[in-house]
Amino acid sequence: MLRISSSMRLSTVAAVLVLLGGGCSSAPKPNTGALSAAGNSKATNGVPAIRPLGGTIGRVIQVNVPLRFVVLDFSLNPLPTFGQRLELVRNGEVAGMVKVSSFHRGTSVVADLVEGNAAVDDWVRNK
Asked: Model's pTM, two decimal places?
């Protein structure tokens, strides 16, 4: 039978506590930046980094200027209906109007540019 002295037991218990105790401390969390007015997203120059869900809100992902149509992405938002008119919004101001055509694939929709001009990363919303 193996005999363990009290000093060996004490040193073994101390070593286990040191190993387990080292993982309990946490590093300081980095500064997450300023929060928007909603308090749930980072703000960049006063504009929320995350747009709210709800309604028909999409983003322009491609523009064809000669043929005057745009491709819109409606990820996480409901798709607009055929013929629906949507406002193009750039920097918080209305930049034009589009009319949804019949073609769509997944979360992408094609719309004709009715008035104004469009640029990639513009937002569209219900009129």
From this structure: 0.57
